[in-house]
Specification:
Strand content: under 5%
Number of domains: 1
Largest sheet: none
Radius of gyration: 14 Å
Number of strands: 0
Helix content: 55-70%
CATH superfamily: Nucleotidyltransferases  domain 2
Distance between the termini: 13 Å
Order of helices and strands: HHHHHH
């Protein structure tokens, strides 16, 4: 694994550990933060995968354009595209009033983050 890839993985893991800890609180008030951290985990793991494949990731929070930077990887992501598209607004949505995210949103976001994390860690040989 490239050193810059490892940096992205490290940052993604901090978000993953944080959202996992918040989930254990079993307090619905933290749902928006879990959603935000789930998005952040996914974004950083995708950027790690980009770096490992020789692509410098842009400063963007939009998940589908990030995965589209690796056109040969399309089959890897095809079953996740819809979920990634739905997760993208979570980078902002929970930080403003009127766009509340709840426990169901957090459950969806965590599940997707877990799947992307596992997928990329496996591809990076991290298990």
């Amino acid at each position: 694994m490239l050193p810059h890839t490892a940096q992205w993985v490290d940052r993604a893991e901090v978000d993953w550990i944080s959202l996992t800890g918040l989930r254990r609180m079993n307090d619905e008030r933290v749902a928006p933060v879990i959603c935000f951290l789930s998005h952040s985990t996914v974004e950083k793991y995708i950027k790690a995968w980009l770096v490992e494949n020789g692509v410098e990731p842009p400063r963007s929070h939009y998940l589908l354009p990030l995965i589209d930077l690796l056109p040969n990887e399309a089959p890897l992501w095809s079953h996740l595209r819809q979920g990634l598209d739905e997760l993208t607004p979570y980078a902002i949505q929970g930080r403003y009033f009127g766009e509340e995210l709840d426990a169901e949103d957090a459950k969806f976001a965590r599940r997707l983050a877990r799947e992307v994390r596992s997928l990329i860690r496996e591809r990076l040989g991290l298990g």
